[in-house]
Specification:
The chain has 15 helices and four strands. With 403 residues, the chain is mainly α. The termini are far apart.
Length: 403
């Protein structure tokens, strides 16, 4: 009697998880974009309903820029000068008459005993002391000394004004000797050509740099305030029950505030800087605004990160002040980046996007640089922005979504 062989149980391979099809991935992407779009509209409506923020943005990109460009000038103008003329010669009178407006006010004649009182009473910033026999010593080939007393409490005026006074004295002495001795002349003539700012007007520099400073400040304030406002008003709980993810909420806040800031920057550059202040912009506005979009993304991510640390607007304001001061003062927009210690230059270029955007803006707007020259600065700004966004997203999930 034969026994039929029993069938051996077959081994079944575990089913691999189904890979999402291309259609489902596109549907998910469209859903994310739709959520970001609706949240962006919500943020823009929220901003429109806040008159304080509206007024702050309008002021920051109009009156504040004009006031900083025209009122905070570092040029030497209307400098008060006293002159102690102990020679009373033709040459000393020429020097006194050479101190002309608008750089100098008419020179005040002083005696040696009046110098200290005039400077202590802030009547004059500079005192020129011309010694006796000054003209005779010049004609005899000697080198008499002209003493210039400077009130250095006005540091910017003291430095620039001293240079002007030295040039006036040197020029008139040279002209006097040249007129007396036909065979006297300079061995070489130096010709100076100034590019990008021929008249050395500080307002041309200050106006554009003020736009960058205000762009930085307002972006941080708006993005951080957008998060703090929802936490204080309790509307953040509405977001928790909506079918949205943290990255969508953050991108919507960055996008909404970025639209407001970039549009305000474009209008400020065209109306305030170019039309009102008559500052020529030689480079591509579109390239500048494209770089501004990358920079706004970076700074807005920083603002949201600060907003996750603070729980009230008062705390956010106190927290953002030192951050903004360091970013703006050590960015190269106020003082040259090269004047800082080397280690501080590397540190700021590593942790802050502002020095890179300042270099980018100066290259584009002042020197007409194209994208092939300034792309490294935008690439570094985008890299720093990615780090800021990752940090802000991590903090946002922990603080708002508790996980």
């Amino acid at each position: 009697m034969s026994v039929a062989g029993e069938a051996k149980p077959s081994r079944q391979r575990p089913l691999a998880p189904a890979q999402p099809s291309r259609k489902s991935r596109l549907a998910r992407l469209r859903l994310h974009l739709a959520n970001i779009y609706r949240l962006t509209i919500k943020e823009l409506r929220s901003f429109r309903s806040d008159p304080t923020m509206l007024l702050l943005v309008v002021y920051a990109f109009t009156i504040a820029i004009y006031a900083a460009a025209t009122g905070a000038s570092t040029e030497a103008k209307n400098l008060s000068v006293g002159i102690v003329d102990e020679d009373h010669s033709d040459l000393s009178r020429r020097i006194s008459d050479g101190l002309t407006p608008p750089t100098f006010k008419p020179a005040i004649t002083l005696t040696p005993s009046e110098i200290d009182a005039a400077m202590n009473g802030q009547r004059v910033i500079f005192v020129i002391e011309i010694p006796p026999n000054f003209q005779a010593d010049i004609l005899a080939g000697r080198q008499p000394a002209v003493q210039i007393d400077v009130d250095a409490t006005a540091a910017a005026q003291a430095f620039n004004g001293l240079t002007y006074i030295q040039n006036v004295v040197t020029d008139y002495v040279t002209q006097f000797i040249t007129g007396r001795e036909a065979n006297f002349g300079a061995l070489a003539k130096m010709v100076t050509e100034v590019k990008f700012n021929p008249n050395l007007k500080s307002s041309w520099f200050t106006a554009v740099m003020q736009v960058i400073s205000n762009l930085t400040m307002i972006t941080v304030m708006l993005s951080g305030a957008a998060l703090i406002r929802e936490r204080e008003q309790g509307t953040v709980e509405h977001l928790l029950v909506m079918p949205v993810v943290p990255s969508e909420i953050m991108l919507a806040k960055i996008l909404a505030n970025g639209i407001v800031i970039v549009v305000s920057t474009a209008l400020s550059l065209a109306i305030v800087v170019e039309w009102w202040l008559q500052v020529p912009v030689s480079g591509s506005r579109l390239l500048f605004l494209g770089g501004a979009c990358v920079y706004v993304f970076t700074v807005a991510a920083l603002g949201i990160a600060l907003g996750t640390v603070a729980s009230t607007m008062a705390q956010f304001g106190l927290l953002s002040i030192p951050v903004l001061l360091v970013m703006m003062l050590l960015s190269g927009s106020t003082t040259p980046l090269e004047s800082m210690p080397v280690w501080l230059q590397y540190l700021m270029k590593t942790i802050s996007p502002t020095p890179h955007f300042v270099i980018f803006s100066q290259g584009v707007l002042y020197r007409s640089a194209d994208a092939t020259i300034v792309w490294p600065e935008i690439l570094i700004t985008a890299a720093i922005g990615s780090v800021f966004f990752g940090l802000a997203l991590y903090r946002f999930r922990r603080v708002i979504f508790n996980g």
